[in-house]
């Protein structure tokens, strides 16, 4: 008798473990105690009772003794309701004792009758069970929801169709992350603990984005998997799921609708996006006891293949996709609807929704196809898989997938706002991970090779953190207009914000890295990410521009770096850059009222991003200007753009964002004022032969590469400016921006009828670093009388922002120019006079001023040029191969007659060498420097290695060469 009781208790415990999954999960000691009480009460239950039409279908001998009316009203999937009992080891004894005590009070005939009815009932139920066994679905014997054992997102295979196969995150050997583009389909597979039952099992795939995902905000999507036998909706008959070690099984050529519980199944189904399901679950807690720990692939069978006795060492892959090419954006066929013009709108509307379908079922493994709409927010999404039985939603298993799903913009998708229809331009502005940033002057542009490195494994995580720090709502991150505006604000770091990099322009970089020492964006982003989001030091406009290119291209937004030469910074909204000089020709800092901070930068780099502008009238899409350099606050933040290039070209300054500011950078006037005692307000405007603002606008030519020179320069001034500087249209735009006309009187030139002396400041050609130069001014007296001329000629070292650093040499005087004669004034500057006074970019500003006493004619002009530095030569020996060490020789000649101290090289090359700095010894005067750098390539194909040399005496010596790596 005791043995029978123990056996029955054991069977009841096994059954209760299954039937009480959800009630035990997450419970403490109280839950365990309740389970013990339940086991003690159901002493005779060997199998859970299931009924159809009120009749028991899984009868086991011995159950009749415990029959009551409630057993016939039990619903499938419910546990038997039993009277409560005390928990503990005495509960069973109390129950048995009560029964025996009751039986002892009856006569033997009564006991016999009780045993007889139980026996007869047992025999009857055996007969009924045999009659009804064929009517019972197999699912009734598996009442627990599906449990997820493993997921596979096929990161590398999906990446090929999504143009993301170059991302290091996709090719990671430990935990590859899927990087997909919106507007396309992707595949992922799930292995469950048993075969999916389409009649009773419910599967929902939930995608969440952000800390508080919500369905109504578009940051939480619930997709329920529905089985449908309609064919022709999604047809991928040649898709194959690999089983590892080259073993794969192909799907049938035609989809089937028959479900076999023990064989591979190919079933077509349609699914509608569920966007209004109300959930009460906290997704931070898993409601079942399913383990989410990643399995060690090398020690078990192929994770998403049917179990076998063999051991595979590789993860399963989808060997081939057969997505139809009938529509490049959808990547799928719409059966009979495809090609129907009247249904085109409905097709587009449908593709703008999340969508899921079962692509293949193979035993316990199901491969899903998910469509991400072209308007989905961009960022890191998480995937949850919910499973429950039909009608038992409270008894549910939630499984959170380990992978972070990176969703990017898609310039290959027509429905995406960043769509670009030129494949060669997409290769340049999305896939090219290296390029040029342009510095120098408008006469002598200098291209700096820059490694964008948007596919590096640190870039996408850093981009996501920057977006989080920007405060941009997660629901708005599908709008490229809002995203690029946030990027323009988060690149620069100010006192109020923790941006990516700190701007500095005074030449003091001892506590950080000098802007000219960077070779690319990766080192900056990695330092930012590993420091916990601390701003990196230091950068300037062209560094900011390079970082913007990296981040935008990484996120899938077409982007290019643009340099504007002679770029105005108008701080008082007058559309002029004002400079004031006293009677002796000395500049008055910040103007007479000390409130004028206008400046004219020798060059300024910003970015163009490509997108539609649905917030503007038609025709203003395409390239949009964003500027991440902290020049001007907009909405209390240092940000600028996106401003339509077409709107700037037309002078439509009323369109968002920051169009008037950008227009002023290209179209402002340069105005010099000299102190004049006869003037009503104390100053008079001086005539000038200065170059106009926005003199030249350039970018890299997408169809050319020139590592040695600047043959890949592309001038795009015509895209930004068509209005002549003196045209009425331009003046009308400026007047409307100023808001009132009375300011114009201060910018009118004095009467020039009496001007009879011509002045000209000569351009300075290339001057090698370390060589002297001459500043030359030509004077021609065109009158019939002698003229007494007072003039000033000054040479100064300057920053590229136009600010003067140090005066190199100055000459002034008064002399007479005879009638009809010419005079030439020269100012000679030696290398010793400028060597220790030069700052970034080795720029020199030459200023000239003149005053004619007889006619009170005034004149001024400026010219800027950069001293030419030697090129750094790079020579790679042999033919580099993947995973084989090779070397490159770096060499240049010291152009100075002094020692170079505090020397170091900065080296970087995508797939060749991660960014690093190498300290180097002191360099002797005139020495030919040679240094050998060793590296191990990690990927085949063509790449480039970029090197810069810096020292205390000379810096910014740059070299670049192409390297072809064989596999």
TrEMBL record:
It holds the Pfam family Transglut_core. GO terms for molecular function: protein-glutamine gamma-glutamyltransferase activity. SMART domains: TGc. It comes from the Eukaryota. Transmembrane segments: none annotated. Residues 298-309 have a biased composition (Low complexity). SUPFAM superfamilies: Cysteine proteinases, E set domains, Transglutaminase, two C-terminal domains. Signal peptide: none annotated. Residues 287-342 are annotated as: Disordered. Residues 287-297 have a biased composition (Polar residues). PANTHER family: HEMOCYTE PROTEIN-GLUTAMINE GAMMA-GLUTAMYLTRANSFERASE-LIKE PROTEIN, PROTEIN-GLUTAMINE GAMMA-GLUTAMYLTRANSFERASE. Belongs to the transglutaminase superfamily. Transglutaminase family. This is Transglutaminase. It comes from Danaus plexippus plexippus.
